[in-house]
Design brief:
Layout lengths: L13 H15 L5 H21 L6 H4 L2 H12 L4 H21 L25 H9 L6 H16 L3 H4 L7 E2 L4 E5 L5 E5 L2 H12 L24 H16 L8 H14 L4 H8 L4 H4 L1 H17 L1 H6 L6
Antiparallel strand pairs: 1-2, 2-3
Helix pairs in contact: 1-2, 2-5, 7-9, 7-11, 11-14
Length: 321
């Protein structure tokens, strides 16, 4: 069973005071979300707990910049967690030490000498274009719930936005005249993305079906639950899973809101859209994040090649050289 006890900085130390200053810096200067700050704090606690055990309860600048201790921590973590988790923890530590160096608490930024462990890149699940169409068209827009579900799917696939961004939309964010929607992404950064005509029609049908008693003020949430309040991410996830399994069968078990985001990006790339345009559409900070969709497309090309190329097909038949 994995040990999960984290270091409790009872009485505080200089190192933990620095950690708190770093978290405050991320909150104020980088506009980090509460979820991000919570994860960063857990990672820093885990590291300082390790240092506390190895350094006789003395965590200071020397211990924080001890490469041997840092490598020992990473080696221990690799035995207990996935490489991606260890990589994230080292990334947090490196950011913290860079902050300490910039603030003058440590003489050198030695963390840059430690490389991140290479994580296995898990390619995102992507639906075929015909399966996306089958799923969306399979939701008959008769009831208000069906209209909401269809509008949600159309919007996720048309814009590639995250489900967390979708539930934050208001009436004022949708501009039918320009065919755009204003999206608030991570760090409250806004981006303007286009909507396709099918998406616009589905949203319009959903809005038209809303009870007349509900006022449609600019700041009012676009997607509401049965109580007239902003719908939750979990509710939309549950609705999507229901329709995905009902319409696509077993394939639907792998469908999530993020599947639409991945499918949108992959299908655009396959049809000639540039990485920069896709990066802007999805709201990625780095182009490196967007580049994973080139791998999805390459893997699909490999499978098509192996299935269609004459020599590749012959190699699968027993007795052929």
């Amino acid at each position: 069973m994995k040990e999960t006890t984290l270091w409790d900085p009872a009485g505080s130390t200089a190192a933990w005071d620095w950690a708190q200053s770093y978290l405050e810096f991320l909150k104020v200067e980088k506009n980090a979300s509460p979820h991000t700050l919570s994860n960063y704090e857990l990672d820093l606690r885990q590291w300082m707990r390790f240092l506390n055990r190895r350094a006789n309860d003395r965590v200071d600048a020397d211990r924080l910049t001890d490469l041997k201790l840092m490598r020992g921590f990473l080696a221990e973590e690799m035995k207990r967690y996935e490489r991606s988790t260890v990589g994230r923890r080292l990334s947090v530590i490196k950011g913290f030490l860079k902050f300490l160096y910039r603030e003058g608490h440590v003489p050198k930024n030695l963390a840059k000498l430690v490389t991140l462990p290479k994580a296995h890149i898990k390619l995102p699940h992507v639906l075929k274009p015909e399966d996306v169409t089958k799923l969306i068209d399979g939701v008959e827009p008769v009831t208000l719930l069906q209209k909401r579900s269809r509008a949600m799917m159309e919007l996720l696939y048309s814009t590639g936005m995250r489900i967390s961004e979708l539930v934050q939309l208001t009436y004022a964010d949708v501009d039918f005249r320009q065919g755009t929607v204003r999206v608030r992404g991570k760090g409250d950064k806004e981006r303007l993305v286009p909507m396709g005509r099918h998406c616009q029609r589905a949203i319009h049908d959903y809005i038209a079906a809303m009870p007349a008693a509900l006022t449609r003020e600019a700041a009012m949430p676009l997607f509401l639950n049965r109580d007239g309040e902003r719908v939750s991410v979990r509710t939309l996830q549950r609705n999507l899973r229901h329709y995905a399994v009902e319409i696509l069968g077993g394939e639907g078990l792998k469908v999530s809101p993020h599947t639409f985001r991945h499918s949108c990006a992959t299908h655009l790339l396959a049809r000639g859209a540039g990485l920069r345009e896709i990066q802007e559409l999805l709201g990625h900070e780095s182009l490196v994040t967007t580049q994973k969709y080139t791998q999805v497309d390459t893997e699909r090309l490999k499978r098509s090649y192996q299935a269609a190329h004459p020599k590749e097909r012959r190699r699968k038949k027993p007795g052929n050289a």
